[in-house]
Amino acid sequence: MEAPESAWNDEIGLVKQGDEAAARRLVEGLYPHVIRILRSHLPNRSDEEDAAQEVFMKMFAKIEQWRGDQGFDHWVARIAVNHCRDRLRQHRARHVITYSDLGVEEAAFVSHLQAQHGDAAAPERPEATLAVLDKLLATLNEREQTVIRLLDLDQRPVREIAALTGWGESKIKVTAMRARRKLAARLEKLERTPPP
Q: Which own/partner contact pairs does 161-164 have at CB distance under 8 Å and 24+ positions apart?
């Protein structure tokens, strides 16, 4: 549940005065918002709690920098998106994906795609579909991953992505176009590769 901006202002004022209870309320109020961002941008769910803590540490370290000219939850979202980009950058992209990178269900999903030549619906295994998608996205650089996750997976408008990332709208559109081409080419290459 996100609080109205005036409630954030009250809590932020108290946090700046050293009120630990206000800091806890701020974290509790923003936690669902931050976790949604982390889950949609980071492929590995196992360390999302650590990532959330890091985002909140950054938020408190920079809280004096918040000017109030944008919504506080938007400001925190920008910190979270940048944190995701930093984590993705740390785990440099591999530009290929092979069958050995896939689990059993993921390989079955790709085999299904091969058999159907992409004409039929995906098998009734959304987990396998998402796992293959995450592995394909991991082959992109951090900027491309961020744009695809925000634009195509989260269905956010280009203008909102520009506000979150600080990039121009045309840069976002070009990045998305190139990233989609790379994903299509890598999936096609994977589909053409026979399983072991």
A: 163/70, 163/74, 163/78, 164/74, 164/77, 164/78, 164/81
Neighbours of 132 (CB within 10 A): 24
User: Where does the chain have alpha helices with state H?
Assistant: 5-16, 20-41, 48-62, 72-90, 104-116, 126-137, 142-148, 158-165, 169-192
Please check whether residues 104 and 186 belong to one and the same domain: yes
Cα distance between residue 163 and residue 183, in whole Å: 25
Which pLDDT belongs to residue 1?
Answer: 41
Q: Cα–Cα distance between 62 and 143 in angstroms, integer?
A: 23
What dihedral angle (degrees, nearest 10) is formed by the CA atoms of 179, 181, 187, 189? -120
Q: Are residues 132 and 123 in contact, defined by beta-carbon separation less than 8 angstroms? A: no
CA distances from 170 to 85, 153, 157, 162, 167 (A): 19, 19, 13, 9, 8
User: What is the domain-level CATH number for residue 106?
Assistant: 1.10.10.10
What does pTM read for this prediction?
A: 0.53
Could you tell me the pLDDT band of residue 124, with boundaries at 50, 70 and 90? low
- Tokens representing 26? 């701020």
Instruction: Tell me which of 43, 58, 90 is where a domain ends.
Output: 90
Give the CATH number for residue 30.
Answer: 1.10.1740.10
User: By CB neighbour count within 10 A (0-12 exposed, 13-18 middle, 19+ buried), where does 121 fall?
Assistant: exposed
